[in-house]
Amino acid sequence: MKQPIIIDADPGIDDAAAISIALNHPNFDLRMITTINGNVGIEKTTANTLKLKQFFASDVPVHRGASQPLVSDIVDASQVHGESGMDGYPFPKVNEKDLASTHAVEAMRKALISSEIPITLIPIGPLTNIALLLSTYPEVKDYIKEIVLMGGSAGRGNVTPLAEFNIYCDSEAAQIVFNSGLPLTMVGLDVARSSTLSHAFVNKLPTLNETGDMLHQLFKHYKGDDFEKGINVYDAYTVLYLLHPEKFNVQEADVQIETNGTFTKGATVTDFKSRFPNCSVVLSIHPDTFEDMFVNALKYCK
Length: 302
Prior knowledge:
Blueprint: E1 3-9, H1 13-24, E2 28-35, H2 42-55, E3 62-64, H3 78-81, E4 99-100, H4 104-113, E5 119-123, H5 128-136, E6 144-150, H6 165-169, H7 171-178, E7 184-187, H8 189-193, E8 197-198, H9 199-202, H10 210-219, E9 230-231, H11 236-243, E10 249-257, E11 268-271, E12 279-284, H12 287-298
Parallel strand pairs: 1-2, 1-5, 2-3, 3-4, 5-6, 6-7, 7-12
Antiparallel strand pairs: 8-9, 10-11, 10-12
Helix pairs in contact: 1-10, 1-11, 4-5, 5-7
Keywords: Glycosidase, Hydrolase
Protein name: Ribonucleoside hydrolase RihC
EC number: 3.2.2.-
């Protein structure tokens, strides 16, 4: 049976890889994509999602979500992803009519409560939309199978010494989600840093298919941390984890979010010795295994 999923995203170059797989892999039933302010502003993340929808001629609905964090000031990562958020590939101009009119939070609520089987939420941007959903409509928790999110780190951060970007962008929202009581998996910086894609590997992607060529052109403009060594496609780890969880090293932990610290705001404080874990933390995967999984998943794309 296909896994029903909802992706909440802020494309973003690595988001493009995750969305490409989710839209095309036969094991997934992608019910919708919701957008969030993050890597760039909400207008651009929404436009970028529509570009991917159009690229794959998909009928999966796209719903625009929150334009700013719950409390914090807006920050972005345009220095990493480019001014548009997905610089590097000549996508045609999008048709705004492809954007659904219902707000992301309302759309998720409707999809969840009307689904015959629980849906997995895959947030790969800041957690504002998910926090708003759980706070406004707590009854939807009964219809959520689990949350598999990209964010956080059991070690060092990437936007500050201790904070990962998605959590830092809206740490108050993250604290709500991590304490929601739902089954939660944190796919953070640790696993991506354990299996960075080499530039030599990325340069072979155009030979795979049109999607490989598109991602290759995007990756050439992606200036993430460790760029000298290779490319970390952080968001893609979420969908690949769902496809092959047995291939990853995972540990249970209690994860709390620092919301007030002058130097530690957005830190995911990870206690692997807690007797009361609230989260599964994905820590590592063998680099060769990840490369094989990534290529095999992309083969389902055009």
